[in-house]
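Supplementary notes for students who missed Thursday's class. We covered one full example, reproduced here. Read the sequence, then the structure, then the short commentary at the end.
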Amino acid sequence: MDRLPEWKQETRRQMIRASETEGSSWSRVRASSSLINVFARRCEDGDEPCPSVEPRELASLAGVLAVVPDSRRVRGRRYRTGVLPALCLTAVPGGARSLARIARHAAGAGHVRATPNASTPGRLLARIDGDALDDAAGIWPARHAADPVEEEEALIGLAVDGKAVRGPRADSTTAVHLLAAALHGSQTVIAQRQAAAKSNEIPALAPLLSRFGLRGVVVTADATHTQRKTAKKIVAAGGDYVPVVKGSQRKPRRQLRRLPWRQMPLPDRTREHRHRRREARRLKVCTVEAGPLFPHAVQTIEIRRRRTNAKTGEVRTKTVYAVTSLTPGQADPARLAELVQGHRSAEAPHHVKDVTYAEDASKIRTGSAHRAMATLRSPAIALMRQAGRTNIATAADHYRSRPDHATALLKTTC
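Structure (token representation):
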């Protein structure tokens, strides 16, 4: 047998000394050339106490999901409607991507007395009413949203953005397109609707926003929803808007470019360095007469972004225009910059779904099960972020090994 390398011998000696020392722990073992430090951090994370759960919050999730209509036959039904979707949701924080992994999670966690077969939640999700599940899954996490409101008249940013859920054998024409409304600060999806087949996101926006009141809410959206009818509906419901105007709206954009931006002062300028790039943003605001440019628009915004690749040194400059119904007294330039930037941050869950949960590569394709799983991922991601987890991939590893923590995170028992 070959002699062990010197660094392995030193690692073994340190492990033996650590095990013989009373009160020693893995965190005291220091091996610069080994993975012991990484394993020590994993052990410390595993010993993290389970978050406390208030009794009044228990069983709230199953109760909310119980209002979803059950399309199963009454004969032979063993589990209530709210139990199975809640059981699926407790498995999602651990990275469950398939119905078989959800069944294994239920068997290991012991949420229910008799472990359901993998086909049981699959049959329910395949026949479930997608809109009803979206409503229930949005109402529940909205109660735990972490957007601090210090004043009664504070504005709440609500980002409207769509995502195509491309399952197996799906192309751009057959993919399920979901339109979601998410709070800026907590990235919590509080409403979701599916765009009709052979249509786009625009007709689905009105039913989406009709699920809740818009008083004190500022709706931010991309250029797709920069529509005059949409702006009128938002203002009529008591809300405000900050949509982006791009090249597809030729006339409004041409009018915005002709405004005297050079004479306008520069009230807001920010810099940040992340993702191997430096970005400088300059924002100017110009007050206009309400009506002629866009319905109820009283302010226009010009944002110049200068991005520098820290590795290659390549510089790209982009100018973005936006309109808003907010008056200067309601939102100053700094607040307008926060709203525009908040819309971009609310799009982060789409990236997490594709990378961490491999949503587009999901093998679930029966009925509406693929859409239902996409719906359940949104509240799981939002609650993990509200719990202080900035890295969802690391959080999924933690909740996979500690299912009791996932149950406490969701504040539910089945």
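Commentary. Residues 21-47, 52-59, 146-152 have pLDDT under 50 and may be disordered. The chain is about 40% helix and 20% strand. If anything here is unclear, bring it to office hours.
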